Amino acid sequence: MKQVFASSWALLLGMCLLMVGNGIQGTLLGIRGGIEGFSTYEMSIIMSAYFFGYLGGSRATPELIRRVGHVRVFAALASLVSAILILYPALVHPAAWGIGRALMGFCFAGIFVTAEGWLNNSVSNENRGKALSLYIVVQMIGVISAQSFLAFGDPSGFILFIVPSVLVSIAFAPILLTVQPTPAYETNTPMPIAELFKNSPLGMVGMFLMGLIFSAQFGMASVFATQAGFSIEQVSIFVASFYIGGLLFQMPVGFAADRMDRRTLIGLMSLVGAIGGMIGLLMGTNFILLVLAAGLSGAASNPLYALLLAHTNDFLEHDDMSSAAGSMMFVNGVGAISGPLITGWMMTAMGAYAYFLILAAPMIALCGYTMYRMTRRAALSVDEAGAYTPVLPSSSIVVVDVATEIAIEADEQQENEDAATN
User: Fold this and answer.
1) Best CA proximity match to 270, nearest among 202, 364, 372
2) Within a 13 Å sphere around the CA of 310, how many CA atoms are in the beta-carbon half?
3) I need a surface site. Which of 109, 125, 324, 342 has the fewest CB within 10 A?
4) Which residues contact 388 (CB under 8 A, 6 or more apart)?
5) Which conformational region is residue 125 in: left (phi greater than 0), alpha (psi within -120 to 50 degrees), or beta?
6) C-alpha R_g of the chain
7) If we measure between CA atoms, which residue out of 65, 58, 108, 75 comes closest to residue 325?
8) ∠ CA 267-268-269, rounded to 5°
9) Which of 246, 255, 365, 378 is closest to 304 using CA atoms?
10) CA 66 to the chain's CA centroid
């Protein structure tokens, strides 16, 4: 791990600062929107725009990199992020914020593709698994720590928008001064959705539902907290709880995923998420219980993303995994665009605490569908299942491909060891 950090510390530091900036603006817009009198549904459209832009950026960035190179793409997108953060308080209008969020999503998708390509290129094959784990931890620490910044300024002013802009600008320096240009990322033709659904119905349904839930957590948590009358400090704690729960559960879920039927684990984790949502829905007047509800929801949704990828790969040939990953991320992206819109509609029709219904209902649906699928297909043995590799819902296709390669290498190594033993 020390070797990985020594070779990639500048990139990791820069990405941490970028995630702090992204984490601040995501929560801050929900608070500021309430101050400016934006309706819940207007805020849901604004938050959904981020994921629309992210999906577009994920697909467009590889072509941009091929045309002008990694360094120029990264510098241009990061500069645009910094500018958008400054413009939010200057252009206080739902349409302007929606456009800004779409551009923000596009830019961060491109930044992730570029930075994660650099990270993959900077480490050896033997250290890629450690580098990926360290990268995920750094990302989550960045988002969690971002919430503490909200206590140091007035959300109705300019300072809290200037701070993430400065952090994003500072993040350029360690990355651009140390990285080397890398080969352009080559994309594979995505597997047809129908074919992927035939191979893994649970994986496809689960990825759509995880997109819906994650976008509700990332995009609408601060909108709910503002509507519920939380203080700034309470908003920060509530939003951070989702990511703290996800960080704490990544390793235990990964450990279990390689030692039991993954469908059973998917069912159990979705049940945990459903319980979290129901706690918030039924006991919403107690702030401590709301924090617990958020923690359980995040603890379930973040590891489930990687778990569903691993489960799907169990039913694919190695050569098909990369093209399947692109299709799964597209399905997840469609769910992510839908999440804030559905959440905003429900909160408008049923009140702020309907927010927890959008966290509970998809988890209940996933748990029920998992149980149904367990009656339709026999379980794979632990030896037949591929290796689990942690991946965040916010990761780009580069990290998903790297995780897939790590899993394939682990499978091949295990097959060689088994052949040698026999």
Assistant:
1) 364
2) 34
3) 125
4) 254, 257, 258, 306, 307, 310, 407
5) alpha
6) 21
7) 58
8) 95
9) 246
10) 25
**Helix axis angle, 201-227 to 232-257, nearest 10°:** 160
Q: Distance (Å, rounded) from C-alpha 98 to C-alpha 121?
A: 35
CA distance 8 to 120: 10
Distance, in Å, from the CA atom of 189 to the CA atom of 411, rounded to the nearest integer, reads 24
Q: Would you say 210 and 42 are in contact if contact means Cβ atoms under 8 Å apart?
A: no
Q: Which string of b and e fits 85-94 if b means at least 16 CB within 10 Å?
A: bebbbeeeeb
The total number of residues written for the chain in this structure: 422
By C-alpha distance, which of 94, 90, 109, 91 is closest to 50?
Answer: 109
Q: What is the 3-state secondary structure (H, E, C) of the chain?
A: CHHHHHHHHHHHHHHHHHHHHHHHHHHHHHHHHHHCCCCHHHHHHHHHHHHHHHHHHHHHHHHHHHHHCHHHHHHHHHHHHHHHHHHCCCCCCHHHHHHHHHHHHHHHHHHHHHHHHHHHHHCCHHHHHHHHHHHHHHHHHHHHHHHHHHHHCCCCCCHHHHHHHHHHHHHHHHHHCCCCCCCCCCCCCCCCHHHHHHHCHHHHHHHHHHHHHHHHHHHHHHHHHHHCCCCHHHHHHHHHHHHHHHHHHHHHHHHHHCCCCHHHHHHHHHHHHHHHHHHHHHCCCCHHHHHHHHHHHHHHHHHHHHHHHHHHHCCCCHHHHHHHHHHHHHHHHHHHHHHHHHHHHHHHHHCHHHHHHHHHHHHHHHHHHHHHHHCCCCCCCCCCCCCCCCCCCCCCHHHHHHHHHHHHHHHHHHHHHHHHHC
Instruction: Work out the pLDDT band at 185, boundaries 50, 70, 90.
Output: low
- Comparing CA positions, the residue from 305, 240, 319 lying closest to residue 273 is 305
Question: Cα–Cα distance between 228 and 44 in angstroms, integer?
Answer: 16
- For 349-377, the pLDDT digits (tens) are 999 999 999 999 999 999 999 999 999 88
How far, CA to CA in Å, does 269 sit from each of 229, 232, 397? 30, 30, 24
Q: What is the pTM of this model?
A: 0.88
Taking only the tens place, the pLDDT of each residue in 81-121 is: 999 999 999 999 999 999 999 999 999 988 888 877 777 77
Q: Which of 221, 219, 190 is nearest to 331 (CA)?
A: 190
Report the C-alpha gap between 288 and 98 in whole angstroms.
Answer: 32
Spatial contact of 322 and 401, defined as CB atoms under 8 Å apart: yes
